[in-house]
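Handout, page 2. Input:
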Amino acid sequence: MQYISTRGGGEPKTYSEALLEGLAIDGGLLVPEQLPTVSAERLESWRALNYPELATEVLGLFATDIPRDDLAALCAAAYAPSVFAEPVPLTPIGDGLTLVGLSEGPTLAFKDMAMQFLGQALEYALERTGGVLNIVGATSGDTGSAAEHALRGKDRISVFMLSPQGRMSAFQRAQMYSLQDANVHNIAVDGVFDDCQNLVKDLAGDIAFKTAQHLGAVNSINLARITAQVVYYFWAWLRATDAVPAAQRPGFAVSFAVPSGNFGNILSGFFARGMGLPIRRLVLAANENNVLDEFFRTGVYRPRTSAQTLATSSPSMDISKASNLERFIYDLVGRDPQRVRAAWTLLADTGSFDFTADLARFADEFGIVSGTSTHDDRVATIRAVHERSGRIIDPHTADGVKVAAEYVEDGVPMLVLETAKPEKFGETITEALDIALPLSADLQALLAAPQRVVEIGNDEAALRAIIEADALH
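Output:
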């Protein structure tokens, strides 16, 4: 299996090379030359596997350059019981919806599911090459803490994580800024997530600087994150169809609702569907920063400026430039890198592009629908789910539940991907339910711990100076 750029430049890469490279050399994103396919028979043969075993099977279709025994060891370490006490439980929450539990990991967010594997795989690849890697990432809340907790203390890796000042919850800040590991560097940028993401892309696009400083990425521009997330779509389908008679299982379709900001999580579902997993619909749920919802409803992609990006009560989705959309566009235009380059040139020149005709032609083939949720919707949804099921969901998951309800179909299970534990967003939970969620002693200690962070302006030169001073070589 080889990986190529959405913009057509550079040489094909192996999985391990893609893992270390992050952004493609021409500024595009790496994608499989062609998606692997999974037959109904093979899918059924995976039903009895535990999560690490299933991860080995699915990731083995992508990471063909990693020996199978080595890959199995990486998956066993990433998804060990000491890391995930119960990986990906499915819980009915009423009204035809089932919650897919993805926040059982160390930072209580779905990002742990891919990041724990990425941490293991990065260390493995670097040990094979004898190299080092300086991760430069951007986070709107959960990616940063998941990455730092997965990579903290690793000898060959340093992490420089950019986050938007004042745009995350107190819990999210504490999870990141309280880490005292020497290889973890938190950098708070005076701006929004898109400003942080732009800085990361600018550095990654400077090939001389990227090479000299051994830069890599853990944002969802890193293809390994996308492939690791594919696993839980397969797991959720298998668990959701356990009670379906065996004769009816082949082709038995389910739908997934996915709270979406940077289009990485739902892109993994798009890949799973392309591999043959029976997915009826992928329901994209946006918050008030609904650029992606606008695109899938109208065909026009019109990112907003930093000033136009709203601060909401689902802050991890406060994103107006979805990096992973480029991977979807690549498929939408028939995997034509020239059309992708032309679209991003037009975007830079005019601030938008229009794929109305392409979306209309391929709407059924790709199966993506969308909707928007507001703060009032989130509060009402949290309250309604609690009243009917006793379950408390976080505000991002509430975005997913609200939009999912608009697309429920008879005979088609609707699975909503959980985003995080509600404790991370206590203020919104208190507003919705008039209760204060009790925090464990460990979580109370986390919030009280001293924090270590460097604040900078939206300033590429300042960021370069920090990396040059502290990067591994």
